[in-house]
Amino acid sequence: MDISLKDKYKDYFDIGAAINNMTAVDDAELILKHFNSVTCENQMKYGVIRKSDGVYATDDADQLYRFAKENGLKMRGHNLVWHNQTALNIFDEDEQHVIDELSGHIKYMNDRYGDIISCWDVVNEAIEDKTSEYLRSTVWLDKLGPDYVKKVFKVASKIIPKGTGLFYNDYNEYIPEKKDKIVKLIKSVNSDEKLIEGMGMQCHVNLYYPTIDLMKEAIETYAGLGLRIHITEMDLSFYNYDDNSKLDSPPVDLLKKQADIYGEYFALFREYSEYIDNVTLWGVSDSYTWLQYFPVFDRKNWPLLFDKEGNPKEAFYKITDF
Ligand code: GLA
Q1: Quick one: which of 163, 162, 184, 146 has its CA closest to 277?
Q2: The CATH number of the domain where 168 resides is what?
Q3: How many domains does the chain have?
Q4: FRET pair for 165, CA 20 to 30 Å: which of 87, 155, 222, 247?
Q5: 138 is in which domain, residue-wise?
């Protein structure tokens, strides 16, 4: 049975993968067979592409852009404003300077890569995880003030052409307390005009958390705000978040459990495909995943749909069995 993921899902949503300069070469065949959308794992982030002297170092991003363009893949632009991997030296002067720098950056990215970018994660992870606090404390908040997310979306909406979706992207987006804060943020940004057009649900999940019901409620909540939904960074870890135990190889029963859970999530995504345009996995195959380094260093993990050799796992067969 020779199944292509993107073909199987063509009537539902695009299927994406986060790629980097290694996987775009090593896993090129797998990517082209199964995915029709890609996201640069790190290469387009503000603090990665723009060096401290203000000069842009575009070789890595250009290579991924060419790979996508030559092969007719869409690209999710990731990301413009984040507390991590950001261009710290733009914050030395006043607020207007930061806004001017950011405008220049967005123009630069749009001119260089915009022709294949289907949407941008304009702001990533602005919400604080601690229940007692609302916005995460960041340089952006410090400099631009409590309505910085709205300011940033306003800047982006003037530069990025209509039709390229403007997304807010976050993790733990299904935890009720955090979800409420995300809703509050989106409502306040969109109070006068619809600046945020889409919700990026990162969907970094594991074998134990969350429940399908929490995910379903989250999809319904964000769709209820009139937003398009992208699943932007899905992977399904073998461990509870920072569990220190380390497995040497994936136990058969857990591979099966993973397959069942992947199956349930994708059935849910199909059920809500009226609202969901893109489901992106945070990686291509288990040969490379950030979860081998974070949050526990050197902990083997097998969170994706293809094994280290690039063969479809049981999870792949579960999500294509409909
Ligand atoms: C967050 C970011 C991604 C990436 C992952 C870890 O989810 O949005 O860009 O850095 O963390 O790989």
Answers
A1: 163
A2: 3.20.20.80
A3: 1
A4: 87
A5: 5-320
Cβ proximity of 112 and 44 under 8 Å: no
Q: Is the distance from CB of 167 to CB of 199 less than 8 angstroms?
A: yes
**Would you say the C-alpha torsion 164, 166, 172, 177 has a positive or negative sign?**
negative
Nearest Cα residue to 174 out of 135, 231, 227, 136: 231
Q: Are 76 and 19 in contact (CB under 8 A)?
A: no
Q: Which secondary-structure segment (H or E) carries 318?
A: helix 314-319
> Exposure string (b/e) for 255-268, b if CB count within 10 Å is 16 or more?
bebbbebbbbbbeb
Picking from 88, 78, 82, the residue whose alpha carbon sits closest to that of residue 54 is: 88
288 lines ligand 1 (CB under 6 A): no
Is the CB of residue 102 less than 8 Å from the CB of residue 63? no
Residue that the structure tokens 């955090």 belong to? 178
Query: Block means of pLDDT (10 residues each) for the chain, length 322 residues?
Result: 93 98 98 98 97 93 98 98 92 95 98 98 98 96 97 98 98 98 98 98 98 98 98 97 91 98 98 98 98 93 97 98 97
Q: Where are the beta strands (DSSP E) in the chain?
A: 14-19, 37-40, 74-81, 117-124, 165-170, 198-201, 204-206, 228-237, 276-281
| Catalytically annotated residue among 41, 125, 197, 314 | 125
Which spans in 37-175 are helix H? 46-49, 59-70, 95-113, 139-144, 148-159
Residue 314 annotated among the catalytic residues of the structure = no
**Which of 204, 233, 237 has most ligand 1 atoms within 8 Å of its beta carbon, as the pocket-test mutant?**
233
Angle (CA) 201 237 255, round 5°: 125
